[in-house]
């Protein structure tokens, strides 16, 4: 661990936040945690307010002004601690062992928040006086339940405002300690197909005459893609944005091997055509379809020769810019109808999370890369897109922000699981790195101010 | 109810048998019930023995000799009484209400057995003296658990014996009171396809690279048939025996309408190409495939975007003569391999129940039709095959018997369900009808004996 004056205070703050079981799924201790976050931001010099959410309130801190607006996004709510019996530590007390802190939220996202906040204080020690850019700190209380009121809140609270950069709630550190800068997230669309062919389950002998809902669902599901994972829904790929040259260069040089991914996941069967050369391209830029689960009929031990009366299959699609989940729902309905599956009901569980992708050669990404490498002592990875999804789209759509994720969620952090943890050394490094990033943002802002008309800079040009 | 001297004794015997909870699934009271059956057969004049089975013993009674051997097959074991709370009567006491008897086994199969036994006594009153044919009465104690030791028992006990006719354990009475003579049963093959593509469930974002076991199972399942229910496994139909002219004539004149079947089952979706003209043909002569259930991944409320590590689908095939379930298993494995599903494991739950079909114009079928019509006052239906299955094949294979089902299982009998029941009037009629059938068999046997070489009669010719 780096010696650092700011560490004892940061540790104590994180310990206090972890001790508040702010489980949004149960609506628990959200106001109490929001008030603790507000007090921290007030103490750190921010104009701070608490704004109502649907389940838990939002905390907003603002400071500074200038030609550049940066938003830091975090959340103070956490996942439930279940199953408690699998924890080796009390979930809501921060424990230390072998260079790690353990506890629910110690990484996701209270640890990310506190490392940045301590970095802010270090930066202010080194750079007191007026902040030459506008910094908005938004701390969500509903992230773990899908941020149901975020979009409406951003529209209401930030009407007409523009944000240049949104520093996303987390970033990753890979297994060998290399920081990963996430420049995008896939969208997601989660649906359920249901079919009912009879009032109740029937004797399977009647399958000579009557159709079988599970066969119909299997046939419909099979029709959606091929062995290579290519999705066969007409028009599905029409809106896919071509990756930029620099994105493609990054994807052509995977920071880890396919073998290591196979080893880490235990996955045994690649899609047809996926190989060591192209897998990272698929992870960054390819949409995909997943069958999440089937239900209906008999799924117990042995055989029961029943003709089910109804069935269902859950499917998700991971989408890439500029696919719109709502539009994909319409394409899927059209596909089912054209293929003779008009009887299959289409239920939409989620069609709100649109994909986003910032430019990997944005100056902030390049600055962050340089500073992460300096503070973590390893080459940083710029990843064009996470293969996973985040509710980042409202920040892009409402505020025009570029979303960039950098932080200290390491690959053994056990997010959402028992023994969630953070590596103390990485936490300490991120305090210093955050201070350096904020200092660099100040320099950028001062230079932008020095120019006559900084708003007309072409996209991606260094201000 | 017909007035009948044999009724009080038959009612009392059935009441005593129903009071013995001979549930083979729990291995309960099987010996006690076998002994009660043995006592009844001994009292009725049979040479009787109890032979060990795997779970419950077999009871065998024999009497008579001659050029004709007839076997009556019944079983004394019953299905469990669960769910008890849905019964309106105590399951193991015979209750009477509105012309019906209620209780577990009152129809399946203790009621069928006692009606025939009382018929035997009536016949013997009318026709004392030596029985001019050989009658074997076999009462199984394991039918409700799939008769696991029946095949081996028949081989052991009846080595080298030939049986002309096996009077099957039940027959049906339709909703309008017409007796149905069942001349065959479909076979059944029940399998499970399993696929595993990873050690555990993965984050569904990895679906861009790794395959999905539920998609693979859906694609494999979809490949097995088309929209019309036609099975696409190569060679599947090769062994299908062409129905005889009389079978086809019977199937062309359905005894009930497609509308009434739709009404009774609540099934809403016919297979492509099935209509009012051909549905009865499919029920009698077409094999079919059923998806019984899928498992794997998430099947709860709402969405969970998981990439399952493994999955399974249960499928049964109803088979027709002369398809062999074991051979169909091999064809199915070949189909999966040829279609790129070598990774899918094929687990066989049941491949023992082969299809059987007697000739609908056999003299015994014609005799039974005439006598059922005389005693039930309605035209009888000769049904070439039940759409369901029975473990009838060992009787055909070991003993060369023609299987014919006639009895009093009416369409509201609630077999295997709460409130199992039998219509008392039909029970009484079956006593008289059974006596008449046995008398007719005696006449046939006497005529056969009168000929020099009755064994050389062409198949189906009236002896």
Kindly describe this structure:
With 463 residues, chain A is an alpha/beta fold. The first copy, chain A, has 2 domains: 7-185 and 356-456, Aminopeptidase; 187-240 and 287-353, Alpha-Beta Plaits (2-Layer Sandwich). Helix content of chain A is 31%, strand content 21%. Chain A has 12 helices and 21 strands. The first copy, chain A, has helices spanning 7-18, 30-43, 110-126, 150-157, 213-222, 245-251, 258-265, 279-285, 325-338, 363-376, 393-399, 424-450, and strands spanning 47-51, 58-63, 69-75, 95-97, 100-102, 134-140, 165-167, 172-173, 179-182, 184-185, 187-196, 202-203, 288-295, 306-307, 310-319, 345-353, 356-357, 381-383, 402-404, 409-410, 421-423. In chain A, strands 1-2-6-3-7-19 form a 6-stranded mixed sheet, covered by helices on one side. A 4-stranded mixed sheet of chain A has the order 18-9-8-20. In chain A, strands 13-15-11-16 form a 4-stranded antiparallel sheet. In chain A, helix 3 (110-126) packs across helix 12, helix 4 (150-157) packs parallel to helix 11 (393-399) and helix 10 packs antiparallel against helix 12 (424-450). The radius of gyration of chain A is 24 Å and the shape is globular. The two termini of chain A are 35 Å apart. At the A-B interface, strand 11, strand 12, helix 5, helix 7 and helix 8 of A face strand 10, strand 11, helix 5, helix 7 and helix 8 of B.
Quick tags:
2 domains, alpha/beta, 21 strands, Alpha-Beta Plaits, Aminopeptidase, 463 residues, homodimer
Short description:
Chain A has 463 residues and is α/β, with parallel strands linked by helices.
């Amino acid at each position: 661990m780096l010696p650092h004056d700011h560490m004892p205070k940061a540790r104590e703050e994180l310990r206090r936040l972890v001790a508040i079981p702010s489980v949004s799924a149960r609506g628990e201790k959200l106001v109490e945690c929001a008030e603790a976050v507000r007090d921290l931001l007030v103490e750190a010099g921010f104009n701070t307010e608490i704004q109502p959410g649907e389940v838990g309130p939002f905390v907003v801190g603002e400071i500074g002004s200038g030609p550049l607006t940066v938003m830091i996004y975090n959340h103070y709510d956490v996942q439930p601690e279940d199953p408690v019996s699998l924890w080796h530590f009390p979930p809501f007390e921060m424990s230390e062992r072998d260079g790690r802190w353990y506890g629910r939220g110690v990484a996701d996202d209270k640890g990310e928040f506190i490392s940045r906040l301590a970095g802010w204080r270090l930066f202010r020690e080194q750079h007191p006086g007026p902040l030459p850019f506008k910094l908005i700190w938004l701390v969500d209380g509903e992230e773990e339940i899908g941020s149901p009121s975020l979009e409406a809140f951003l529209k209401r609270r930030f009407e007409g405002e523009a944000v240049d950069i949104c520093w996303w709630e987390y970033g990753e550190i890979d297994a060998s300690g290399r920081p990963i800068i996430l420049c995008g997230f896939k969208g997601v669309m989660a649906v359920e197909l249901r079919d009912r062919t009879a009032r109740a389950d029937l004797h399977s002998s009647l399958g000579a005459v009557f159709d079988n809902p599970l066969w119909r669902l299997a046939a419909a599901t099979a029709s959606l893609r091929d062995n290579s994972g290519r999705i066969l829904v007409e028009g599905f790929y029409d809106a896919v944005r071509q990756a930029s040259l620099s994105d493609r260069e990054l994807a052509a040089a995977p920071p880890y091997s396919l073998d290591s991914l196979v080893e880490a996941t235990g996955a045994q069967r690649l899609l047809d055509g996926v190989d060591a050369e192209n897998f990272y391209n698929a992870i960054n830029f390819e949409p995909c379809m997943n069958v999440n689960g089937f239900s209906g009929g008999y799924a117990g031990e042995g055989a029961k020769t029943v003709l089910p009366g109804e069935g269902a299959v859950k499917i998700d699609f991971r989408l890439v810019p500029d696919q719109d989940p709502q539009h994909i729902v319409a394409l899927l309905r059209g596909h089912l109808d054209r293929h003779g599956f008009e009887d299959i009901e289409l239920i939409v569980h989620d069609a709100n999370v649109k994909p986003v992708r910032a430019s990997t050669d944005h100056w902030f990404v390049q600055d962050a890369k340089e500073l992460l490498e300096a503070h973590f002592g390893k080459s940083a990875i710029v990843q064009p897109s996470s293969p996973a999804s985040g509710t980042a789209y409202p920040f892009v759509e409402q505020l025009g922000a570029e979303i960039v994720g950098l932080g200290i969620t390491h690959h053994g952090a056990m997010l959402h699981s028992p023994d969630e943890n953070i590596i103390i050394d990485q936490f300490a490094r991120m305090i210093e790195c955050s201070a350096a990033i904020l200092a660099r943002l100040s320099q950028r802002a001062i230079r932008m101010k020095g120019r006559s008309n900084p708003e007309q800079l072409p996209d991606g040009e260094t201000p």
